[in-house]
Amino acid sequence: MRQCSMGNRTTLLAAMTTSLALAASPVLAQAQTNSQPAPSSTKDPNRIICQRIEETGSRVASKKVCMTAQQWEEKRRSDREYVEDAQQRSLEPNSG
């Protein structure tokens, strides 16, 4: 096994933290604007829900997005999986 100096470890940790933050930031920004609670299973999954989503990188611009309750739930699940995958990849040793 190869030994790493303390400087290399610090640099590696900083690089991993930065890459995780950059990979997850669009998803987290999206998740923060979707503060609406998850729909309950007793409601119609085909009802249309519209939300204003802030454009990434802008404090003013936003767009209206309309999807069914089921589509919103699938998007939340997909975003959560993306973040978890990015976190898992950041913990894996660099093979390069």
In a few lines, what is going on in this structure?
By secondary structure, the protein is of the alpha+beta class.
Overview of the molecule:
With 96 residues, the protein is α+β, with helices and mostly antiparallel strands. The chain has a domain at 26-31 and 43-85. The protein contains 2 helices and 2 strands; from the N terminus they run αββα. It has helices spanning 6-33, 69-91; strands at 48-54, 62-68. The chain has a two-stranded antiparallel sheet with strand order 1-2. β1 and β2 (62-68) form a beta hairpin. α1 (6-33) packs antiparallel against α2. It is flat. The mean pLDDT is 74.
User: What's the N-to-C terminus distance?
Assistant: 15 Å
Helix-strand pattern, N to C? HEEH
Number of strands: 2
Largest sheet: 2 strands, antiparallel
Structural class given helices, strands, pairing? Answer: alpha+beta
Beta fraction: 5-15%
How do the strands of the widest beta sheet line up side by side? 1-2
Question: Main attributes?
Answer:
96 residues, alpha+beta, flat
What's the helix and strand layout?
Elements: H1 6-33, E1 48-54, E2 62-68, H2 69-91
Antiparallel strand pairs: 1-2
Helix pairs in contact: 1-2
